[in-house]
Amino acid sequence: MSAPARPLRLEGLVKRFGDHAVLEGVSLAVPEGEIVALLGPSGSGKTTLLRLVAGFERADAGRILLGEERIDELPPERRGFGMVFQHYALFPHRSVAGNVAFGLETRGLARAAIAARVEAALARVELGGLGGRRISEISGGQQQRVALARALAPEPPVLLLDEPLSNLDPSLRERTRRELAALLRALGITTLLVTHEQEEAFELGTRVALLHGGRLVQVGTPGEIYRAPATRFAAGFVGRASFVPVEVVAAGDGPVRVRGAGLPGGETEAEAAEALAVGERADAMLRPEALELAEPGTPRTLAGEVVAARFGGAWSWATVRAAGGLEVEVLVPGPPPALGAAVAVARRPDARPRVYRRETP
Amino acid sequence: MRRARIADGVVVALLAWLVGWPLVVVTGAALEAPGGFGTALAAFAAREGEALALARSLWISLATVALAAAIGVPLAFLFARAQFPGRRALAELVALPVALPPLVGVIAFLYLWGESGLGTRLVMAAGGLESPPWRLSGAGAILVVHAYSMYVYFYLFTRAALARLDPSLAEAAASLGAGPVRRFFRVTLPALRPALGGAAVLTFLTALGSFSAPYIFGGSYRVMTTQILASKQNGDVDLAEVETVVLTLLALGGFLVARRFERGEAASRQRGGAAARRPAPTRGARAALAVAGWGLALLLLAPHLTLGLLSLVPRATWSTEVLPPVLSLDNYRRVLGSAEALRPVANSLGMALAATAAALVLGFAAARAARRGGALGRAADLLMAVPAAVPATAFAVALATTMSVARPWQGRFLLVGTLVLLPLAYLARALPSTGRAALAGLAQLDSGLEEAAASLGAGKLRTLWAVTLPVVRPALAAGAMLAFLAALGDFVLSIVLYTFDTRPISIEILSSLRLQETGLAAVYGVLLTALSAAVFLAFGREREA
Q1: Which of A93, A102, A151 faces B471 most closely, judged by CB atoms?
Q2: Which of A77, A86, A143 to mutate to test binding with chain B, by most B CBs within 10 Å of its CB?
Q3: Residue B505 in this model has a pLDDT that exceeds 70
Q4: What domain range is B336 assigned to?
Q5: Number of domain units in chain B
Q6: Per-residue pLDDT at B275
């Protein structure tokens, strides 16, 4: 349905508001037909990045290319991108169909052609027959789909989504997310999506671009980012993780060896996320599924007390506090242990921690 | 962006010329009075009549605030909180005087409670009295008429605030052990304070600038507004200018207070829940509420009903009888059947229409400039609000002073005595209504509607035409309605600036009265009321559509 998908390339984008640098040189390639999710905490610059691409803000440095064409000097109306706004920005004075028709009218299509394409666009988001409704007469979930249909109707080469699900009820969000993912993949449209929710980024994005403090931290598939977070921030922001203080005892080109009083399983080989020297203090990152509970007194375990527990059906999560206040989270099969129970935490034999340089406070 | 700023500069310059410059010129003229402004001011203060008029203006305005609150606030509670048959219709009807021209209200009051008024005759007949039990003149009459017409501000502000009030506040207080009295004084009333403050300032400013009531009922009891006109008509232009400056400064002081209140109110605005409307517990109480509601509404609307009745009384047919003996459509035939008699109606309609159209364009441009911010934006924001603060009499005198000489290089043109001056004055007075409305409408675009249009390929013009204007249209229509109604019924600017060729309805009402043509004056009053109500209702339908 869409115009031929084209790759989008961002090169060294810098944006300052006054003295405050919001983006400090972001380069990112979105190959044609790929869905890249910009993930980051609030204030990381992800919305600004999207607005630069849409043309609502001008970059202080850097270029934006669509295919081979440089577009960062075009006004937004000449870029031809479809955009879904966080609060939808539906025109209150137009009907559902009138909203969807807007972008087709600006392209000067004939009325009959517009009507047919509006109908098709509405059918695609399962709103067929609702074209005559007023915006105020439809539900929030339907408004979200009208916004999507409106952005897609002109068959843009690139689709931009700004927190497209953040205004929906949690119960509706999961279903909408699934439908949106299916639709985007079926359309094969080049998509840039902004979100602060990891689940959203992981389900919608074929690749995830992690932003922090105006810089790209890591770009990769959800699996890559989860398994091998590039920085300590990435490790903490994506997925659940415990950090245990360790000391580097051997280092070379490949893995390092680390040792620490709080490290379950004792001295071990670990992946180094960054270059580390022998004797350096570091943090070992352990996912909950890398740990398990053992009988108290088992050798080479971390003794502690259960201080928080979350029931999750077949699996549960337990937070264990060891001597010195160190807390680790453990994934346990079945129901969680009782609060206050004395336990020991062991490391699963196949689990290798990932080590980051200690951040000096 | 630069082109937009240049356009903003032009708008601000135009506003400054129309709104700010006359005030500067009249102040300058007052300063240049023989011996300087100090001497003029000293002379002003020394004259007994002047200081007295100033004192009277002040105390009448303060007393009006108290009286209007005493009527408007309980009325708002009655209609917002009680449940009785006819409540919804009456609640709207009671607010109607806000749309009716002040002069018509004053005349209607005269016809009802004046010395030979219908109500007065009824009271005399009922009590077997030889002479009227009261005389409708002086401070008392002005106050009664003020309270009668300005309760609407307190009524509307309080009703709106009650509708916004979160009912769970009172419920929370109840759950913490507060009884109904404590809830009212400790929770409800403090929550209404910003609205009451806003209504009080608006009422004060309106009363300070009020002209019709003191002009018709004051007689020798002069307040500042009537004093200015008297000075001007006596040919004492210097004194009129000093008086204008004094009154303007006083009003601007009140205006600055009002803006502070407004900010406070915006900050305390909360999400409204369903208003707690309790049906009265017993049948008797319900009946009592209904009687009170209907009775009050009838009392407040009685003057306008009287006006309708008196428009049917032919000339010289009603002398000493309690009720008019003859009713006919004779007066209507005399007005509607004569092109000459219809001239003022056509004048008012034409001038109001032209002024409103121009004020819409200028107000919208000023609002856009204001939203772009910066020094130009702040100037536009302030200038478009100023005419609301300056009493109309003062503004009219300032405009007349400025446009009485041909000095184009000073921005002064000889417009006194031309057809242009009165519509220009209407335009200036309309700016606060249309400008504020445009600002409110543009605020709705915050959610990125214009960006959405751009992302869909619409350029600047198309966005303005297909998105911005349709979205702000309801707000603009509301502003246009207020501006049109004010211009249509204007009396205060008109009496200073009219010429024979631009005489509006209000001036015709006044001259009919002077000729003892009470029936004709009533017909013009009814026509004005009907036109105003029609515009008001048409707008209501537009709002619902």
Answers
A1: A93
A2: A77
A3: yes
A4: 1-29+325-545
A5: 2
A6: 47
